[in-house]
């Protein structure tokens, strides 16, 4: 393919208009109480931002190749998610003491059960049986379990500080270890064993028939992707007071706010993972889901460890008994899924049932 062929690939107009709508909605709603009109505008901006973000992520991924494309989307979303968590914690006082724990745990459950389950179910319904590289996804799942255990399970059992919290030194250790472990995984995924995380040769060869975008188009898509993610996360923050009011109105636990924020922020990865599975690229779906889980923990914990230096109030990280049981079930089910390297409707249904149980028990603990 010549450079001229690549230059003919242009972005559709809607992929440029939708990020602009999202930013307009963000500016119009920022710092204001949402009336009916603003709420509709925020919802439209969120939906448009998600659709456009997925499109631009696919453009970038097609240019840079896997697994860099999924890594860019996962890290970009997580960096902005971390900024959102820290912002909400700094302005929420004691009421936000559990926000980081609830949001990170929700992200783990959404990615490891919700996104994985939807991708497995959608892909298997179309292709009956799908295959992925168990040694790649198994390693990613092992890193995820290690990160969530070090960051969210151990605080419930340590004794240096009162309650399910870390002492200052323990939080610093957890933050450093999270960064180290996530950094090692990224090195393995992108350098040392990059081929482990690629789709199978037949699928990759089929995808290579599509012309790659030019460098200019790719940079444009990258910039628009970041704008989309800023709009999505910013609109999620703008909608958070309405979410809190709705949660209080129905008498649901405050932890539901963290779950709803995580659901909104992770919509781009969810849509991208399902679309990849429908194209019989289940390895890409697994890269997205598990990569997002690792990034959520590996980047959030160090960030809040640093932010805790100037933030007052407690920082509750330890999970409760119900959450520990759900995490143990996720570990068992996820291990059995990735070990086989094959996916059918059954695995997708099991993951979605566990995810449904997490949502139900969040509302009715």
TrEMBL record:
Subcellular localization, as worded in the UniProt entry: Membrane
UniProt KW Repeat keyword: no
Domain Sodium/calcium exchanger membrane region: 36-190, 221-362
InterPro entries tied to this protein: Alkaline_pH_Ca-Antiporter, NaCa_Exmemb
Primary residence: membrane
One Pfam family matching this protein: Na_Ca_ex
Source species of the chain: Saccharothrix longispora
PANTHER family associated with the record: SODIUM-POTASSIUM/PROTON ANTIPORTER CHAA, SODIUM-POTASSIUM_PROTON ANTIPORTER CHAA
Keyword hit for Transmembrane: yes
Keywords for this protein: Membrane, Transmembrane, Transmembrane helix
Lineage: Bacteria, Bacillati, Actinomycetota, Actinomycetes, Pseudonocardiales
Membrane topology according to the record: Multi-pass membrane protein
Annotated transmembrane regions: 12-30, 36-56, 68-91, 103-123, 135-157, 169-188, 222-243, 249-267, 288-312, 324-341, 348-364
Protein name in the entry: Ca2+:H+ antiporter
């Amino acid at each position: 393919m010549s450079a001229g062929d690549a230059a003919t690939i242009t972005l559709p107009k809607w992929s440029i208009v939708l990020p602009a709508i999202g930013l307009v909605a963000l500016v119009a709603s920022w710092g204001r109480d949402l009336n009916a009109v603003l709420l509709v505008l925020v919802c439209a901006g969120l939906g448009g931002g998600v659709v456009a973000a997925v499109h631009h992520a696919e453009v970038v991924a097609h240019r840079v190749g896997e697994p860099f494309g999924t890594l860019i989307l996962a890290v970009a979303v997580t960096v902005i998610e971390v900024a959102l968590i820290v912002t909400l914690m700094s302005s929420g006082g004691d009421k936000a003491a559990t926000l980081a724990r609830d949001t990170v745990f929700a992200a783990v459950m959404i990615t490891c059960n919700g996104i994985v389950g939807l991708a497995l179910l959608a892909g298997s319904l179309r292709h009956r049986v799908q295959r992925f590289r168990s040694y790649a996804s198994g390693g990613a799942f092992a890193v995820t379990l290690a990160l969530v255990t070090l960051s969210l399970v151990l605080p419930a059992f340590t004794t240096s500080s009162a309650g399910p919290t870390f002492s200052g030194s323990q939080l610093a250790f957890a933050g450093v270890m999270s960064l180290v472990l996530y950094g090692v995984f990224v090195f393995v995924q992108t350098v040392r064993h990059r081929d482990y995380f690629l789709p199978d040769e037949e699928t990759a060869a089929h995808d290579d028939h599509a012309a790659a975008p030019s460098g200019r188009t790719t940079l444009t898509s990258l910039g628009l992707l970041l704008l989309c993610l800023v709009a999505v996360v910013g609109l999620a923050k703008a909608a958070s007071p309405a979410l809190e009011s709705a949660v209080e109105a129905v008498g649901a636990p405050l932890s539901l706010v963290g779950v709803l924020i995580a659901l909104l922020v992770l919509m781009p990865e969810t849509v991208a993972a399902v679309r990849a599975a429908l194209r019989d690229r289940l390895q890409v779906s697994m890269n997205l889901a598990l990569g997002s889980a690792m990034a959520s923990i590996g980047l959030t914990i160090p960030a809040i460890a640093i932010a805790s230096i100037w933030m007052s109030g407690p920082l509750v990280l330890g999970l409760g008994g119900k959450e520990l049981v759900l995490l143990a079930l996720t570990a068992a089910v996820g291990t059995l899924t990735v070990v086989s390297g094959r996916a059918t409707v059954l695995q997708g249904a099991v993951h979605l049932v566990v995810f449904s149980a997490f949502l139900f028990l969040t509302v009715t603990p």
